[in-house]
Amino acid sequence: MTGDQATSRQGQPIGVAVVGAGYWGPNLVRNFATSPEYRLTWLCDLDESRAVRALGPYSTVGVTDDLATVLADERVDAVAVATPAATHLDIALAAMRAGKHVLVEKPLAATYADGLRLVHEAERAGLILMCDHTFCYTPAVQKMRAMVHSGELGDLHFFDSVRINLGLVQADTDVLWDLAPHDISILEAVLPPGVEAQSVAAHAADPIGAGRPCVAFVTLQLTSGAIAHFHVNWLSPTKVRTTMIGGSKRALLWDDLNPQQRVTVFDRGVDLIPAEEVGEQDRETALISYRTGDLTSPALANREALAGVVQEFADSIRTGRPPLTDGRSGLRVLAILEAASQSIALDGIPMPLRGSQVDLDPHEQSDLELQPHRALADR
What we know:
It contains 13 helices and 15 strands.
């Protein structure tokens, strides 16, 4: 079935298959099965017994360990991939070449070059490629995005996120690639139009000798002059999940561990009074003024984020519009992660990020993307 055929099935449930029945796959199964937009057709996993357990004893959903069987089924319009990142390229490419729309668990791929191949294939075939950056579909992040885009916060000054906890130290990845994709994707979702990251500098440490970074600090310079900072940590004795966004008019705090008040908006800030408005005698002391106003906590919808993901996927398939976290968005996240890893390897040297990266050849991009600023490299 072609992408056009799948998209044209207006009013009919979208046939979907989930590949991977490990940690995340069952969550996708549950949301697809309960959404009226979909008809869950297959659950594919190398361990069929695990797939059967994920579905339950009374399910009529097909179970197989053979991806080819799933892709050959004309009832399947879309495939959701919930397997290790190293397998995303092969599975997603095969699905798109079989004419299926694809939803991929984060990260989009194991490398930028792999992600670029997926984006190019989706665009060539006219298919929807979406990355499951689930946090972008939480009511809190949706509210934050709306406030930034409407100008309610004013010009963006800074974005500061903390995602720290005790464990789990991963055997196949480091803390940057484990935790930072969440916050980088959130930044990508809330940035106002025309503003993007232009360089990244990162530092990391492995104080316990795990053989991979367990603590990392990442700083992005944005094209608007604003700054974004991420702190990710596997070694913190306390769990913290916060994001602060500061603007010229207001600031907001998202505390994901505070269900009673997840988002707080502060009518507080610092204003610079133009020098011409201040008398010569008072100029040195009166240029800065502090604004102290009300705190408000906007009401948020009570909706599971993953339900928002599967709804966005369905809407994009039916209308042909790119989803919020489309392949290009997932690719920008990969570009930042790879550049941050390179910066860590070079003791924090800032690494440039190119705009319109998806238009580059994968090999050309690899050469350009990971070159440090020349002036700094010559130190």
